[in-house]
Amino acid sequence: MTKVDIVNLVAGDTGLSKVKSEEAVETIFNAIKSSLSKGDPVVLRRFGSFDVKKKSARIGRNPKTGEEAEISARKVVRFKPGKYFKLVLNDKSKIKSSSRFY
C-alpha cells in the first residue's frame, strides 16, 4: 500500500475530496515526523507505537570486500505493534465483538 492508496481509501471512506484527503494524510504524517524528531514517542492505541532509538557508532565490515568501515552514530525509528494489531495479523478467531480490543 502506498500513500496514494491511503489517500484514496480516506477519500472513499469519508466522502472528502482527494485533495482534502491528501491534506489530512499529510497532516498526520507531519505530526508523527515532528513528534519523533523531538524524541517524543507516538502511541496509536490498538495499532502500535513509534519511538526513536539511538544507535552508537561502531565498526562494520563491507560484505563485498571484507574491508572494515566505521558506521557513524545515528537515530532509527522503531515500530512496536499493539496487542490488537498482533491479534489481527496472527489469529482473527481470538477477536470477538465483545472483546475489549475490538
Write the layout of secondary structure elements.
Elements: H1 3-14, H2 18-37, E1 42-44, E2 48-55, E3 58-61, E4 68-71, E5 74-81, H3 83-90
Antiparallel strand pairs: 1-2, 2-5, 3-4
Helix pairs in contact: 1-2
What Rg do the Cα atoms give?
19 Å
Fraction of helical residues: 25-40%
Q: Taking all residues together, what is the mean pLDDT?
A: 90
Strand order of the largest sheet: 1-2-5
Secondary-structure-based class equals alpha+beta
Count of β-strands: 5
Count of separate DSSP helical elements: 3
- Beta-strand proportion: 25-35%
Number of domains: 2
Q: Per CATH, which architecture of the largest domain?
A: Irregular
Unreliable segments of 5+ consecutive residues:
none
CATH fold group of the largest domain? HU Protein, Chain A
Distance between the termini: 23 Å
Order of helices and strands: HHEEEEEH
What does the largest sheet look like? 3 strands, antiparallel
Task: State the fourth-level CATH superfamily of the largest domain.
Answer: IHF-like DNA-binding proteins
CATH class of the largest domain: Few Secondary Structures
Give the overall shape, derived from the CA principal axes. Answer: extended
